Amino acid sequence: MEQQSDGMQMLDFMIHPAFCVKNRIITKLNVPAAKLFLREGLSLDAILDSGAEEYAAFSSGMLCLTLSICGQRFGASVVRVGEEDVFTLDRQYESEELRVLALAARELRGPLSSAMLATQQLETENQQFSRLNRSLHQLLRIVGNMSDASGVSPVFRPEQQNIDAMFQEIAEKAAALSSFSGISFSYQGLGEAVSCFVDRQQMERAALNMISNALKYTSEGGHIQLALCRSGKQFRFSVTDNGCGIPEKERATLFSRYLREPGIEDTRHGIGLGMLLIRLTAARHGGAVLVDFPKEGGTRISLTFSSVVGGGSVLHTAFLPADYAGEQDHALIELSDFLPLERY
Q: What is the pTM (predicted TM-score) of this model?
């Protein structure tokens, strides 16, 4: 009897739809994937929605891209096992429970915003006030991530941006806020002004969550490198740290909603809502997310996105986009798990 490959053996233990790919052809799938009308011999190119270029260059680490199957969009996490790639799907747009979660998050925003406004009017430098204010920022971050984790996309509002200046501004803000932590930052950009269409609010949130993840695993004296590079119409923004790296046991569920158990002893280990926000932002911008682990140590998270460069046209409404943070400082919210009390 022919021995199964390691990738094929993995499928037997997966409850989510999963399949193996070799030479861009599906070679084996589990029962949940077969129920989606996938089949052996199907070309991967027939179902790739975003991330085609990223997958062509993929060799190690973990890649997250988007597939379109029978008119439905699925997030897919990819890992290479031997000579095969194992795809695990997340049915991210079908759960009624997650839609209820999004509605609950919307209801929480009102009283939370009122509490933050009342706190700001106290005008005190007391440490207890700072602790309360930081906690409220942390709650607002959780509420925002709960809403986005439902897969119910907020209105996508791409605007023409100088993206090199945009990411440099994010890097400078993160460096200034994190100065007390003893962690240094650097930014390597394009070296020129390049305008393209992105949703600035969504891209900013994704970038700040990438930085937040890097801060989780970087100790005092460490360094975080932010970089933006370009290849044709595709851009790649990456955040690299020289910290302890993501534990092996967490890597398999890095992109899986709610499969990650919050750490009791180690509070750095959340349930993964920030990573989902990064993944959804990449998908909305026609890109993918790659997590890899440099030989010298640490972790690198890269978000790719495609855009019409320069003079394209985008349909806009007459309404101003709502600020998910209620006009609060976005960096203070997204980095609130790691910033010192002095910042609040």
A: 0.78
